[in-house]
Amino acid sequence: MGDKDKLKTGVWPTVKPFINGGASGMLATCVIQPIDMIKVRIQLGQGSAGQVARTMIKEEGFGSLYKGLSAGLLRQATYTTARLGSFRILTNKAIAANDGKPLPLYQKALCGLTAGAIGASVGSPADLALIRMQADATLPLAQRRHYKNAFHALGRIVADEGVLSLWKGAGPTVVRAMALNMGMLASYDQSVEFFKDSLGCGEATTVLGASTVSGFFAAACSLPFDYVKTQIQKMQPDAEGKYPYTGSFDCAVKTLKAGGPLKFYTGFPVYCVRIAPHVMMTWIFLNQIQKLEAKAGL
Q1: For this UniProt entry, which residues form the secretion signal (predicted)?
Q2: pLDDT of residue 166
């Protein structure tokens, strides 16, 4: 049996979706990181997208747009590896149980919800480090943590706050990931079937069209949860040691009372610009990786 045949029958078919998912997510993050940085600053109340970008470049330099990139890449290496890999494993199992027939939308949505929960649980520490690094420059000098990179941030968090603090805000992170991945993953597979089978589109059009639909639903489903998650992860205790929110539900209730439902959509245009292209590029990079593997016989 040749080396390529061994790859097809060994452990490779199991680990392949995870490796491909992580690689595609990391490549997409390298492109999207500046927009993500601006989005976080907007949610922290520093102004519009243009104002935030100008202020950051003027006061902190162009490199500030890539602050937290190491944490972003670590997050993709954990979160996206787990969610895309587990989603493909789950859907393949479900298709096999369905005698090879395409899955109905609700089953794809359930697979997306499950994959999102798995990915967020694995990636929550890196996500916390990313938020802390991006928000650090907005804090008073006395409260800044001055993290050097993602691993330094994780080490400091463990040393100062304990191991379990790495999952601080994990509840809203998991819920947000479940909503995002239900919209992203289920809509992509469903759209691929629609563009390819119903409209008869070619590969490039199918991938681009399905990626666009996937990006829209990912953004529409997840922004309120992302807003609450960011508020929980960046909160600081007051002079008496009390935090402004006791948890995600308390944050959601107080936000609703203070600003109404639209408050959850603070930074919505930038969030859409950030989320949708990242989702689109993740799928496009994944498609290209799969094509390269097919040419190599993997």
Answers
A1: none
A2: 86
Which of the 8 DSSP states describes residue 77?
A: I
Exposed e or buried b per residue across 206-245, where buried means at least 16 C-beta atoms within 10 angstroms of its C-beta = bbbbbbbbbbbbbbbbbbbbbbbbbbbbbeeeeeeeeeeb
| DSSP secondary structure, 1-19, as one string | --HHHHHHHSSHHHHHHHH
Angle at Cα 220 formed by Cα 249 and Cα 30, nearest 5°? 100
| Contact status, residue 195 vs residue 205, Cβ threshold 8 Å | yes
Q: Which residues contact 194 (CB under 8 A, 6 or more apart)?
A: 210
Alpha-carbon gap, residue 231 to 244, rounded angstroms: 9
Question: Does 132 score more than 90 pLDDT?
Answer: no
The CA-atom distances, in angstroms, between 89 and each of 108, 115, 210, 293 are: 12, 9, 20, 18
Report whether 230 contacts 131 (CB < 8 A): yes
**Whether the model pTM is above 0.90:** no
Q: Name residue 195's amino acid.
A: F
**pLDDT tens across 246-298, in order?**
888 899 999 999 989 889 888 888 788 778 888 999 999 999 999 999 998 88
Distance, in Å, from the CA atom of 158 to the CA atom of 165, rounded to the nearest integer, reads: 7
Instruction: Assess contact for 57 and 125: CB atoms under 8 A.
Output: no
How far is the C-alpha of 104 from the C-alpha of 108, rounded, in Å?
7
pLDDT of residue 16: 93
Is the pLDDT at 10 greater than 80, yes or no? no
- State the angle between helix axes of 81-97 and 170-193 in degrees (0 to 180), rounded to the nearest 10: 50
Q: From its phi and psi, is residue 99 left (phi > 0), alpha (psi between -120 and 50) or beta?
A: left
Average pLDDT across the chain, whole number = 86
Q: Which amino acid is at 297?
A: G
The pLDDT of residue 9: 62
